[in-house]
Design brief:
Elements (H helix, E strand, L loop, with lengths): L3 E5 L3 H13 L3 E2 L6 H11 L3 E5 L8 H10 L4 E5 L4 H8 L6 E3 L4 H26 L22 H15 L4 E4 L6 H10 L8 E5 L8 H6 L16 H4 L4 E5 L6 H13 L1 E2 L7 E2 L3 E6 L3 H6 L5 H7 L2 E4 L10 H15 L6 E2 L1 H9 L5 H15 L5 E2 L21 H15 L10 H5 L3 H10 L8
Parallel strand pairs: 1-2, 1-3, 3-4, 4-5, 6-11, 6-12, 7-8, 8-11, 13-14
Antiparallel strand pairs: 9-10
Helix pairs in contact: 6-7, 10-12, 13-15
Keywords: ATP-binding, DNA-binding, Nucleotide-binding, Phosphoprotein, Transcription, Transcription regulation
GO molecular function, one term: DNA binding
GO biological process, one term: phosphorelay signal transduction system
Length: about 450
């Protein structure tokens, strides 16, 4: 990326301060534009390598409209804005900027964001070359990746396969997005196992299962005596993954104070154990979440700079209900697996059972389908066909007191409360709420805290 920057900002003092920061840091600054029309003239005359772009400008056009034109010319840009509300953020994000700087600016934030933008631009150019040449090969043997653990023949799945190949050949961070049960860890493992780091460790971390008080020590380690109870030195998960890959599952659950430390790992390639000194680390980061990170950013629960640093190469996994052509291949594969494992003579599904599988919405996605097939195999008395699929009891769409359809968060809260009530607020152990919900007890406690659920005494 060229070391020449255009500032598009209609506030003179802020534009002047930005110029001073950039020039002091060694950047060349073009003439300052205060409107889209002025910016277009300067771009044609001075050809900047990057644009710092205010969203609201003089004139009848916005920075978002200019961003669309910059995208066509392959000029990277960073938004400048005092307005970080959800709707503005959503509109701006659709233009795929390299980041956001929220006013008032701090010098170190400006320079850090420019470094991020430079790295992102290099990575995007490299990934674009791979995609254009249809490179879906590993670094070692240049073979096309097939059968990476996700079963099916849908076009969506074939596209995911292509993305896995591109990601495996690169070194960039990867962010895997999708609902629970869609196979995010399967994709992460496929990327690692087909990369140049395949012979090194893959360390999986469930961020939702780590308590806020221990997560820093768990991720980065600590020195002996660094805090009360630290009787021994602890090697953190990042060091355990040295020269390999770390998979941060449910990264959207990570506390904000830890997010800044993760950002340092991404930017500086270094960690700092509790009570220790900073040290360089060579590790590839793959993250995943079932949350809408844009909403988390707008709500202040997820750092904007970390979001953009992770969002280098996103892979969106579609829910099973949106790729119905994969339902039967998955079901038939796991029928064979469970029939063999349990010495059952079941060989397939009846037509009625197939229709039942195809007509169900699968809110738990592939994970729910696998569990249901296993249960159906165990319950099958006949030697050949599973004729009856026992689906979860159907429920009416829930509404709140005003008659409006409840949000996913409201439904989740009500469902957890219902389960807690049924098991007399027992969380741990067999028959506890975590067992009934089929999630880790620490994950359940984290969700309860986030949803404001505490034990009620009548």
């Amino acid at each position: 990326m060229k070391n020449k920057i255009l500032i598009v900002e209609d506030q003179f003092i802020e534009a002047h301060n930005l110029r001073m920061v950039l020039e002091t840091a060694g950047y060349t600054v073009c003439s300052i534009a205060r409107s889209v029309q002025e910016a277009l003239k300067i771009i044609a005359a001075e050809q900047p390598g990057l644009v710092l772009l205010d969203i609201f400008l003089n004139g009848n056009k916005t920075g978002i409209e200019l961003a669309i034109l910059l995208k066509k010319q392959n000029i990277p840009f960073i938004y400048l804005s005092a307005n970080s509300d959800k709707d503005t953020f959503a509109l701006a994000k659709q233009t795929n900027p390299y980041g956001f700087l929220v006013k008032p600016f701090r010098e170190k934030d400006v320079l850090a964001m420019l470094d991020i933008a430079a790295n992102l631009h290099e990575e995007h150019v490299s990934l674009a070359r791979m995609s254009a040449s249809n490179t879906v090969a590993t670094v070692q043997d240049k073979k096309v990746i097939h059968h990476f653990g996700m079963i099916g023949n849908s076009p969506v799945l074939k596209e995911i396969e292509r993305y896995i190949g591109i990601a495996a050949a690169a070194i960039s961070p990867v962010l895997i997005l999708g609902e629970s049960g869609t196979g995010k860890e399967v994709v992460a493992r496929a990327i690692h196992e087909n990369s140049a780091r395949a012979k090194k460790p893959l360390v999986v971390v469930d961020c939702a299962a780590l308590t806020p008080t221990l997560i820093e020590s768990e991720l980065f380690g600590h020195e002996k005596g660094s805090f009360t109870g630290a009787v021994d030195k602890r090697t953190g998960r990042f060091e355990q993954a040295a020269e390999g890959t770390i998979f941060l599952d449910e990264v959207g659950e990570m506390p904000v104070e830890i997010q800044s430390k993760l950002l340092r790992v991404l930017q500086e390639k270094e960690i700092c154990p509790i009570g220790g000194t900073r040290r360089k680390i060579d590790v590839r980061i793959i993250a995943a979440t079932n949350r809408n990170l844009e909403e988390e950013v707008a709500a202040g629960r997820f750092r904007l700079d970390l979001y953009y640093r992770l969002f280098v190469f996103p892979i969106q996994l579609m829910p099973l209900r949106d790729r119905k052509e994969d339902i039967l291949p998955i079901a038939e594969h796991y029928l064979r697996v469970f029939a063999t494992a349990n010495n059952k003579g079941v060989t397939g599904f009846s037509e009625r059972a197939k229709q039942t599988l195809l007509n169900y919405a699968w809110p738990g996605n592939v994970r729910e389908l696998i569990h249901l097939v296993e249960r159906s195999v165990l319950l099958c008395d006949g030697p050949l066909l599973i004729d009856t699929i026992l689906l979860p009891a159907s429920r009416q769409i829930r509404t709140n007191d005003t008659g409006q359809i409840k949000t996913i968060t409201e439904n989740e809260r009500d469902h957890i409360l219902e389960v807690l009530s049924k098991c007399d607020w027992k969380i741990y152990g067999r028959g506890g709420a975590a067992d009934l919900l089929e999630i880790n007890a620490s994950t359940l406690k984290s969700r309860m805290k986030k949803l404001g659920i505490s034990k009620r005494f009548d």
